[in-house]
Amino acid sequence: MTNRSKYYIVFVIMKLGKKELEKKLSIFKDICYREGLKITPQRLAIYKELIYSFEHPSASNLYEKVKKYFSNISLDTVNRTLLTFNRIGIIRVVEGSGNSKRYDSKLEPHHHFRCVRCNRIIDFYNKEYDDIEIPAEFKAKFIVTTKRINLEGVCNKCRVQVK
Ligand SMILES: [Zn+2]
Ligand SMILES: [Zn+2]
């Protein structure tokens, strides 16, 4: 039986500290170097905008921000850059994010809550979800490397509006 009181969910609303920012940028540079991906000012700008955003932005959200500095950048370039970043493991695509892909620069284990009304994607941490047991029959067939829980529902902001 599960002891429900043991469940805890921490919503993370935080700003990125200077140290964390430097750490992320150094990981970014290391991976680019390892994968032979040239760090162009545009690529760096796309990555920075993604790490500054806690809203799991789409390619077009990031395009709107980056084009302020690089007026001739195209949405297609932003799209392709994000897919490349995802392929080499710098960022990841948020599963179940609906029509347009949403991106996450946070690589450490965490889970998502998506609001079906406003499409906000909120991070949360839960140790028990990280350690969730895989069914034996599934384990016999597949190798599970990542466990992520996606919750869906109505967020606190939208809940208030409904009343
Ligand atoms: Zn909402
Ligand atoms: Zn996330």
Describe the structure.
The chain has one domain (9-163): Arc Repressor Mutant, subunit A (Orthogonal Bundle). A four-stranded mixed β-sheet has the order 1-5-4-6. A two-stranded antiparallel sheet has the order 2-3. Mean pLDDT is 86; it is low at 1-14. 42% of the residues lie in helices and 12% in strands. By secondary structure, the protein is an alpha+beta fold. The chain is globular and about 50 Å long. The protein has helices at residues 18-35, 41-52, 59-66, 75-87, 127-130, 136-141, 156-162, and strands at 10-11, 92-93, 103-104, 111-115, 121-125, 150-153. A hairpin with a 5-residue loop joins strand 4 and strand 5 (121-125). The protein is built from seven helices and six strands; from the N terminus they run βααααββββααβα. Helix 2 crosses helix 3 (59-66) and helix 3 (59-66) packs across helix 4 (75-87). Residues 115, 117-118, 120, 155, 157-158 line the site of one zinc ion (ZN). Residues 56, 104, 106, 110, 112, 123 line the site of one zinc ion.
Outline the low-pLDDT stretches.
1-14
Count of folded domains: 1
Could you tell me the CATH topology label. Arc Repressor Mutant, subunit A
Spell out the CATH superfamily: Winged helix-like DNA-binding domain superfamily/Winged helix DNA-binding domain
Structural class: alpha+beta
For the structure shown, list the relevant keywords.
single chain, 163 residues, alpha+beta, 4-stranded mixed β-sheet, two-stranded antiparallel ribbon, 7 helices, globular, binds zinc ion
